[in-house]
TrEMBL record:
This is Aldo/keto reductase. The keyword Oxidoreductase applies. Coiled coil: none annotated. The active site is at Y52 (proton donor). It comes from Carnobacterium viridans. Belongs to the aldo/keto reductase family. Pfam families: Aldo_ket_red. PROSITE patterns: ALDOKETO_REDUCTASE_1 (PS00798), ALDOKETO_REDUCTASE_2 (PS00062), ALDOKETO_REDUCTASE_3 (PS00063).
Length: 278
């Protein structure tokens, strides 16, 4: 059975289409064990951020997972993000090094601007371009950017972001943004793909779950993948970690994908990048 898919980003770097998110996982031992379990189970992409406050636990989980799975650091794709205050204080390069030190690695595969902080994200991006040019990071991208943020970034940059990581789920499909990203060859990545579990009781999702003998979460993650969206569901439960990866042995029909997309309500469960004080 196929257990993974890889996508090539616009700079030629390869990234798994399904990874593990660790937002709001604060218990050190729980997160270490979850990441170790995930890596042994075949996860190769781990997504964290400086503001999560868990980069040290991520690093320890990675070390234990590498040892248990018999793989190398190079087999993993590790992402972190710069927080807003480090952008304001012009500490981009320092913040990157801090993340490296906390995780305990020599480089990241992807470093993201976490939020488009007005009057700061362009300067922060230019500093990230320096990191990329010096080959200290394999890829750079953004998170929570709207079309107008990306348009402004383009005016002042030489490197196109490889990824825009945004809130994306059946009730927030971000069609205009997704079309723009496709046009610009910027990969969309979904955070909170399962709406913190809220979407799992939707009647359509449950009907498809019954049809395919898959969980509601698996239906949604499969929808992500068939829409060409990288997805990083969060879980520390061993059974759920395995379940979330078991989405490569079936496919929704085009009509079913469209019907899930049609559930869109433009409804956010997280902050609106255009109406939030970062």
């Amino acid at each position: 059975m196929k257990t993974q898919e890889i996508i090539t980003l616009n700079n030629g770097v390869e990234m798994p289409t399904l990874g593990l998110g660790v937002f709001r996982v604060e218990d050190y031992k729980e997160l270490v064990e979850a990441i170790k379990t995930a890596i042994v189970a075949g996860y190769r992409s781990i997504d964290t951020a400086s503001i999560y406050g868990n980069e040290e636990a991520v690093g320890e989980g990675i070390r234990q997972g590498i040892a248990a799975a018999g793989i190398s650091r190079e087999d993993l794709f590790i992402t972190s993000k710069i927080w807003n205050e480090d952008m304001r204080s012009e500490k981009v390069i320092e913040a990157y090094q801090t993340s490296l030190d906390k995780i305990g690695v020599d480089y990241l595969d992807l470093y993201l601007i976490h939020w488009p902080v007005a009057e700061h994200y362009v300067a922060a991006w230019q500093e990230m371009e320096k990191l990329y040019a010096a080959k200290k990071v394999r890829s750079i991208g953004v998170s929570n950017f709207q079309v107008h943020h990306l348009e402004e970034l383009t005016k002042h940059s030489t490197v196109t972001p490889v990824i825009n990581q945004v809130e994306y789920h059946p009730l927030l499909t971000q069609g205009e943004l997704k079309d723009y990203l496709t046009k610009k060859n910027i990969q969309m990545e979904a955070w909170s793909p399962l709406m913190n579990g809220e979407i799992l009781q939707n009647d359509l999702i449950l009907a498809l779950s019954q049809k395919y003998g898959k969980s509601a979460a698996q239906i949604i993650l499969r929808w992500d993948l068939q829409n060409g969206v990288i997805t990083i569901p969060k879980s520390t439960n061993a059974d759920r970690l395995l379940e979330n990866r078991a989405v490569f042995d079936f496919a929704l029909t085009e009509e079913e994908v469209a019907s899930i997309t049609a559930l869109n309500q433009n409804r956010r469960i997280g902050p609106d990048p255009d109406n939030f004080e970062f």
